[in-house]
């Protein structure tokens, strides 16, 4: 094993840690939180993985402002003093950097972020969004070579002698040059801070999954924050989601005289009548009977062993580029939440010329939202192949697991699937097609074979109320179709 | 200017013809016509002299071909023997834009229904063209779903559409679209992205003609993707520009703005100076998007998203006055008070900022490639119809002024040679001459000669292929590298060493990975080293790290003379994580790059 590591690699890593710790000497945010430097190291590591390599002091200052509660942070004068530390010009430079950090700390965005108590991965991607462009234009960035991940052992960060480390720093000018560059990029940084996308953060909260994000998820998360299309999808989903969050799991109640009592119902057999209803005088009782106002006991319904499977297919081909994609993905997010809250099993899948990775929505609606927001097709379309493969898969599901499947296809007006394949799918699943903004109307020959089809036209998309109404109409309709099935 | 020797030869040839020694004169004329560098006036004069000579020899077809080259169509037709030169006859009508007559000769005498249908369309006779396309469709070779079948369906659909038969048009175009999707996918899976590209080009045309934005987006974005992968930088931006324009015409602002942003990122990555222009363009389109939404009474949140996207783009190019303007507009939207106050406060920050001039050069018109789009739904069917008949292919080239004169001259010189009498040395000479043409159109004839030729012909095809700088060349080359005959394999290896051009990278990598022959792998690696793109450099580093000798040493040598200086930082980053022999090889490569002269 020792051979696998280059000679002196441990020394190199330790050297880099010392170098990074030394930069904290010019950090301007004070916090009593002893874990703050370790968290900064964790944010730094995620930034390195995202290709943003920076001196730790900037990651620490901005990250602390975003991640720690307001009352735990304070921007206060700091910097190494004494012989061999900073000259007058450098001191002025550090002061202008401090002014910038103070200005950032005073923004509403930072206040909101601090109140959210963001997870470390989220703090890191927000930092990447804030600093990516600034870092790319840092003229001395090549002098900050050798950046690698930092160890996360808290003991390494306990009470370091920053002054000594700063004095031992080989090239302090490279570090100071970044502070200068940040101060010179004041407007750029402040604009980026104003642009922090809280809607995406909110949406991620609504679909939170239990697993910690891996490297791929971090990349998706970052893409979700920098992608403008993702931003639109997020906004659209947030418009729809409040209406479906109240969805309750379909109750397991029936009115036949078997099994235990489960509820009180407005209708039922006379042997299930609640006894107190008999206390009314005859006239009143008869009137209540005629008006269906009597109460009966409901009995427990035996639930099917297998939950219904709602399979949502989202067209990811280049044909969906623009508003079609925004509507389809926003709708898919809402639909998946609604159906899973309703108690159905929900699978999501992108398609173009392939059926891409299957995403199984967790019970309660947990979902890898960044993947859904940022998935980008790298192929053309081949609907014949995709739906042929799907038909085989559904046939297997039906044969092996006797699943009842409702298939939602979110696509565009030029999605031409061979009629015979749709015919085959019709025998395997309830087919629900949603055609978004067809530029020539929907001319697909298989349309009559779909159990239900919705066409979302330009009028529906250009009017907020109408767009929301249509989307929620589809969500409700889909829920009912699934239930009916 | 002709040399004194050439002038002497011309004088000699004229004299020989004059004295009734046309057979000897003909050899001299052919020698002269093989010289492609002389100016038009001189060359045309030689051509006329050669025509006199062929007339004296009663070789009328050759006279006609020379007149086609000179665009003397009437005279050409006087000489084409109607029983043996029907195709050339039809061609002369077509070149003269007498399309109806050309179609008639193509269809009735030359058995070329595809070319007849195209001429009928150009003559405006869609009804007859449709019947002709139906005749093509019934060809047994087009029975299954194939690329050519899709092209015929495309032409039928477009023709039916022009005739007002909407139902048939829809049926044919949907069929075309379905087949194109399938074959493009098959091509991409087989690594033949260049052929998939043509499928996407047809989708673009379908999108344009049928006003279907979905097909337009599908076609353009996939073409752009393929060209990005092939590092065809200027074509990428040209297609981006064209798609932007079409999307804006159709008010698809969202799609346009995101593409402008992607173009900016691509320009930056490809070291082109247009990134700032595309960022500004993206910002402007987002602003337009907001404006359109407001005018249409759309949801203010849509305008808000568009304007914040514009802020993002303006900020990226430090245009803070514009950022301030966007915030001012955001503050005026019908949004909740809290948001409006926030936007108002943000706009104040930029009030005192001075307007900075935007140094953002646009993609210049002069870099647009004139042949970025081809009528592949015609051209590839013509290729299918001619099926590699080299004489017919060359005949289509000589009168076509789209081709520069030197190429037309080479094609004519080949046509004036007597056709090969055997399947050996003479056919091999034709293969070699086809390679000299260097035109894409010569690839299919080379493929056919390879399929049907002796080893000596196949080897000549491989030699000719060394001058054909097209991705399609590699599928033929791969067959040559696997040929049963050692001479063919050797010629293929030689060709492989010559075929290095920017978009050859993928094909070269494929050969490197799939071959088990060390010599082939080394030759492919050498060509990869000559490509010069950064990805080629990274590939060499990969070989250095994971392969054994002698490939490792070769990769090291190629890295030492790699021209892109950015390779140094990539090498350094690999060095940090490498151990063992690979590390020392990387260190050595790095040292050699720093001392390039020593490495050479």
Question: In words, what does this structure look like?
Answer:
The complex is a heterodimer of chains A (485) and B (600). Chain A is of the alpha/beta class. Chain A contains 19 helices and 11 strands. In chain A, the strands form 3 sheets. In chain A, strands 8-7-6-9-10-11 form a 6-stranded mixed beta sheet, sandwiched between helices. Chain A starts with 8 loop residues before the first helix and ends with a helix. Chain B is 74% helix and 0% strand.
CATH topology descriptor of the largest domain in chain A: Rossmann fold
> Helicity range of the residues of chain A?
40-55%
CATH class of the largest domain in chain A: Alpha Beta
Query: Per DSSP, what share of the residues of chain B sits in E-state strands of 2 or more residues?
Result: under 5%
Largest interface: A-B, 57 and 68 residues
Keywords:
heterodimer; A: alpha/beta; Rossmann fold; six-stranded mixed beta sheet; three-stranded antiparallel beta sheet; 19 helices; 11 strands; B: 600 residues; mainly alpha
SSE blueprint:
The complex is a heterodimer of chains A (485) and B (600).
Chain A: H1 9-23, E1 29-30, H2 36-49, H3 56-67, E2 74-75, H4 88-105, H5 108-116, H6 120-136, H7 162-167, H8 172-184, H9 186-194, H10 198-206, H11 215-226, H12 228-244, E3 253-254, E4 261-265, H13 282-290, E5 296-300, E6 309-315, H14 323-341, E7 345-351, E8 359-360, H15 369-374, H16 383-401, E9 405-411, H17 419-426, E10 429-436, E11 452-456, H18 458-462, H19 464-484
Parallel strand pairs in A: 6-7, 6-9, 9-10, 10-11
Antiparallel strand pairs in A: 1-2, 3-5, 4-5, 7-8
Helix pairs in contact in A: 2-3, 2-6, 3-6, 4-8, 6-9, 6-11, 10-12, 12-14, 14-19, 16-17
Chain B: H1 4-18, H2 22-33, H3 40-56, H4 60-69, H5 73-79, H6 86-95, H7 99-108, H8 113-122, H9 126-137, H10 147-162, H11 166-189, H12 193-210, H13 213-229, H14 233-249, H15 253-269, H16 275-295, H17 300-316, H18 320-332, H19 337-349, H20 376-386, H21 390-398, H22 405-416, H23 425-437, H24 443-452, H25 455-465, H26 473-481, H27 486-498, H28 505-514, H29 518-531, H30 534-546, H31 551-560, H32 567-577, H33 580-594, H34 596-599
Helix pairs in contact in B: 1-2, 1-3, 2-3, 3-4, 4-5, 4-22, 5-6, 6-7, 7-8, 8-9, 8-20, 9-10, 10-11, 10-12, 10-20, 11-12, 12-13, 13-14, 14-15, 15-16, 16-17, 17-18, 18-19, 21-22, 22-23, 23-24, 23-25, 24-25, 25-26, 25-27, 26-27, 27-29, 28-29, 29-30, 29-31, 30-31, 30-32, 30-33, 31-33, 32-33
